[in-house]
Amino acid sequence: MNVTIGAGVRGSYLICSQPVFRQVCRSLRRPPRRLDASLSSPRLGNSVAPEDPLAGDNFMFDDLGPAEPPTKSQKAQRRNIVEGGYFSRPSDHRSTLTETSSFSTSPLETPYRRRKEENERPSDLLMESVRKSRSCEDTLRLVERHEKIMNHHHLSRTVSHIFDQIMKWDPLSEEQKEDLLRDPRFAKLCTRLIRSSRFINPNDAMEILKLLSVLRAPQDSRIVQTFLHLVKEQINEMSLPGLCYCGFLMKKFPENKVAQAMLIALPIAFEYRMHKEMDPKSLPELRQLLRFCSMFGVRSSVKKEIVDAMRGYFLSSTNLKHFSVQDAAALFILLDQCNALDEKIIDVIADTFERGSVTDMKTFLAKKMLSSIRYCRAKHPADFPANHRICSIEKRLNDSLPTESKDAFDDNCDDVVDDSVHLMDNYRSLEDKKKR
């Protein structure tokens, strides 16, 4: 290196630019540092050189690391660049970064804040508009107008709102449901749901499947397959109420292979979760678990554990005024379907019927209760003799029913057990209670 080293920084720049010096620095595995005037030794001279125009942000070796440890502002800036660059969250040291860094902070901060302020306000207004729409036509009109700016929260809320409209507020006929399926605005909603499926949680996915089952959507359609696969992937993460409702929902798709596979896997996941998550002090949850056992082939030991927990609840409860006659009838039907009748629980049911009035019961529930009592007496004559308390309930139900419907059996009476609206409401209430 035929370079004269003077008492300045210009000579150090020439040394650092030589290939030999760069190779030596690479072999030492540390970044080369320029020789400032403040680092001058007696061998190089002690004269102070003027300010180097090459020093600063444009120096070619500054990107290899500063001589001193980086400051907090520099660390924050580098973290923003590494973690997201243009789309990262703005730093808290905005003024410091602007003054000390040669990088412009406007691409890191301004567009993000502008997008955030522009997107939050219309999102709230759109959600309020969806909630306030009182007809299915108004909701579909909102979808047609704002479909491009809807995120997965808006889409899920729209689906829930449409279900409430067509099931609770303004029930649709079968022809109107077919017209809704053929509506191009509903097709747009389904397309957006498929595109946003990776952001939708399993609870919202079951809400979507619930609407599709009510509308009798084709079981081999793309949207049904998409959300069935989404629910299938999350089966191990579901809670007990979620598994119960998922089992009811899968029975609405009897011709789908994914749903049939779920029906096989759900009892296994249910038995695994029940021992860990069952709440013996919650009667609605125990009834829901018993309903699941009546729908699936669960082991008898699992049924016995649920019935024992229910018996303990009734024995420890001092006030059962909230337990109505209709609740008692539905519970007896569930016990009969599970083949898990318990004498203590039957006494509680008989006490409830003695306090209440049979005339307040719905006709189909009374017929279902009467049919269950007759079946139990025929199957277990030794357990239910003529002087048993359940026989008095049978007589009261027989007297309260009209003559033409005493011996008739309505196949649609299963709605008392498997009503989708009430079952999903119970599922929501149990989930909200656990979150609190």
Automatic annotation (TrEMBL):
It comes from Ramazzottius varieornatus. Residues 97-110 have a biased composition (Low complexity). The lineage of its organism: Eukaryota, Metazoa, Ecdysozoa, Tardigrada, Eutardigrada. The gene is RvY_12675-1. Residues 34-123 are annotated as: Disordered. It comes from the Eukaryota. This is FAST kinase leucine-rich domain-containing protein. Residues 111-123 have a biased composition (Basic and acidic residues).
